Amino acid sequence: MKELHLVIVSPERMVFDGKVDEVTLPGELGQFQILVNHAPIISSLVAGTVRYKTGKEETTLEIQGGFAEVNNNQISVCAEL
User: Fold this and answer.
1) pTM of the model
2) Is the sign of the CA dihedral 61, 33, 28, 17 positive or negative?
3) CB proximity list for 57: less than 8 A, separation 6 or greater
4) Coil, strand, or helix at residue 3?
């Protein structure tokens, strides 16, 4: 089974780099969820909450905005915290 790999960076530091089961992001048209084999997209992000699950653990991160790219089960998020 394929896995999702998430990288979250801010201008100040690397926030997270690892495998996840799912990611929820605050897009301009509302929240959207990324699962394995999601179609490639690039999206701007608005102020809100990024949620990602690793196993049974869910982590949340408040952001002020940014961008996300999804391609081939790789999720790259550049966000201002």
Assistant:
1) 0.94
2) positive
3) none
4) coil
